[in-house]
Amino acid sequence: MSLRIAILIFDRLTALDAIGPYEVLSRLPGSEVVFVAKEPGLKRTDTGRLGLNADAAIADVRDPAIVLVPGGEGNRPLMLDDEVLDWLRGAHETSTWTTSVCTGALVLGAAGILDAKRATTHWAYLDRLRELGAEPVGERVVEDGKIITGAGVSAGLDMALTLASRVSGETVAQAIQLGIEYDPKPPFDTGSPDKAPPDLVEFIRSSEG
After folding, report:
1. Is 102 considered catalytic here?
2. pTM of the predicted model over 0.85
3. CATH number of the domain to which 131 belongs
């Protein structure tokens, strides 16, 4: 059986938010990953230097088994876009899993999908999640029913591997992790606000706006 996975993209998205999960989910048995947008075509990432192509319009992809919303500054207008929010609500009604990475959770929240649900996002936006009706959790991956949310950017890989284990079992997920050699050993221990120096946390918080 084909497993249709719709990844919503838009101008000024954060590349790894979409591509990290793509690298994992495209390896699931029977997966069919489609990049969707309001309108098909090239979407530039937040640096403006990388383009991802949306092969289909959201209007033409109504019932994906998995829907994924990445983050990036370009998703803020989507929080007020009735066409996108209506599509997300409809997709969520029939999806097996509804997921997000980083500030993609804000779009799910704006659609009402996270009402009274535990969810995570980039640490600088956890308070914003609460304003949108969710129960923010400062964890890397959070599951609540069929909703799985990932924290900031690189957490999309963890979210996708968690999702892979739910869809195809732990052995398949472990094989994917080995295949992409996801065995991170970062050179610095500053990957969360709990570990980073306060001045660095403040710098990132101010740059995130």
Report:
1. yes
2. yes
3. 3.40.50.880
